[in-house]
């Protein structure tokens, strides 16, 4: 499974920090018409960012993201997760913070 992932001290902080980059990416996808190729019911990439987040992204505090990953693992048996943690224009420091925070915690949680 593949998911967009971003971790910060709190869910509000994580959304605030990643939104400009992730929102721009999905605005571009919508502009390119990528939604037309997506499954019915998951085909509106032009919706408001808060609505777009839904189950599509794993964003929040370390504990929240770890729990989201654990739920995916327990619910459908996912054993491999490709985490997209970098988007155009994002400072490298934000990418590294996510890597260093979430990877070790997820490894011990599953």
**Distance linking N and C termini:** 15 Å
In terms of quaternary structure, the protein is single chain
Number of helices: 4
Main sheet overview: 3 strands, parallel
Helix content: 40-55%
* Secondary-structure class: mainly alpha
Number of discrete domains: 1
Along the chain, the helix and strand elements come as EHHEHEH
- Please state how the strands of the largest beta sheet are arranged side by side: 2-1-3
- The total strand number stands at 3
Overall body shape: globular
> What proportion strand?
5-15%
Low-confidence stretches: none
Structure write-up:
- The protein is mainly alpha-helical and 110 residues long.
- It has helices at 11-32, 49-53, 62-76, 92-109, and strands spanning 2-7, 57-60, 82-84.
- The chain has one domain (2-109).
- The chain has 4 helices and 3 strands; from the N terminus they run E-H-H-E-H-E-H.
- Strands 2-1-3 form a 3-stranded parallel sheet, sandwiched between helices.
- Helix 3 (62-76) packs across helix 4 (92-109).
- The mean pLDDT is 85.
Write the layout of secondary structure elements.
Blueprint: E1 2-7, H1 11-32, H2 49-53, E2 57-60, H3 62-76, E3 82-84, H4 92-109
Parallel strand pairs: 1-2, 1-3
Which features characterize this protein?
4 helices; three-stranded parallel β-sheet; 55% helix; mainly alpha; 110 residues; globular; 3 strands
Please give a quick description of this structure:
Helices cover 55% and strands 12% of the residues. By secondary structure, the protein is mainly alpha-helical. Strands 2-1-3 form a three-stranded parallel β-sheet, with helices on both faces.
């Amino acid at each position: 499974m593949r998911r967009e992932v971003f971790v910060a001290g709190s869910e509000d902080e994580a959304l605030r920090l990643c939104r400009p980059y992730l929102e721009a990416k999905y605005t571009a996808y919508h502009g390119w018409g990528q939604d037309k190729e997506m499954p019915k019911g998951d085909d509106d990439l032009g919706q408001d960012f808060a609505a777009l987040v839904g189950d599509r992204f794993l964003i929040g505090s370390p504990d929240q993201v770890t729990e989201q990953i654990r739920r995916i693992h327990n619910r459908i048996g996912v054993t491999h997760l490709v985490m997209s943690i970098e988007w155009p224009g994002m400072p490298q420091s934000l990418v590294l913070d996510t890597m260093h925070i979430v990877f070790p915690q997820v490894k011990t949680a599953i």
